[in-house]
Specification:
7-stranded mixed sheet; globular; alpha/beta; two-stranded antiparallel ribbon; 9 strands
Length: 223
Amino acid sequence: MTSLALQRNNMVESQVRPSDITDRRLIRAMLEVPREDFVPAAQAAVVYGDLDVPLMPASAGTPLRALMPARVFAKLAQLADINATDRVLIVGGAMGYSAAVLSTLARNVYVLESDPALAAHAKLALTKHAIKNAEIIEGPLVTGFAKSAPYAVILVEGAIETEPVELLSQLAPGGRLAAIVGYGPSSKATIWRRHSTGTSSVEAFDASAAPLPGFERKSVFTF
C-alpha cells in the first residue's frame, strides 16, 4: 500500500467511521477516491489531515475556499440520505472531490462552482477518473442551477449565513438540502426537507466549514 493510500485508509478508520458514519457505500467511496487528485499539488501532503485544506486564497470580496475535513463532509453527505436514483446538486463543488464521491452514490451529480480555476481543475480531475455521471457548471452559487432542477438532494459544500431560498426552490417534493449554517464554532449542520406545503429545517450536529461566497448576511444600516 502506498503512503497516500495508507493515509486514506487511516483517514476513514480514524476520522470517518468514528463519526457515526454507517453508510457503507459512502465509506467505500471515501476509501477509493484519492483526495490528493482534487486539491492543489502543494496541499497533497496534508489532504488526509482532520482539517480544512486550502484550495484558493481569499481575495477582495471572496473568502478563502477550502476542502472540508473528511469527517464533516461524510456526516453532511450521510445526513442528505442520497439514494442510487437521486439527482444531486453540489453547490460550491470546488475541485471535484465531493462529486467524485457522490457520483458513486447517486444517478446524476451536477456541480455548481463560481470560480473558473476551481471548475477547470474539477473537470480535469473527473475526466482523469473517468467519472461520467457528474457535470461541472460555472455560475453564481447562491442562484443554484435551475436548468436541471428539481433535485432530490442539494449539498452545500461550505458554510452559509442565510437561508438558501433559491436553492430550496429547486428541490423536488421530498427533496433534502444539507448545509452548514453559521460561521465559526457555533455553526450547525442543518437539513431542509421539501413538503407539499413548503420546507422545514432541523439542526443536526455541530460543524464548521469555510464560508461560501454569496450567502453572507446583508448588513443593515440604521440612522
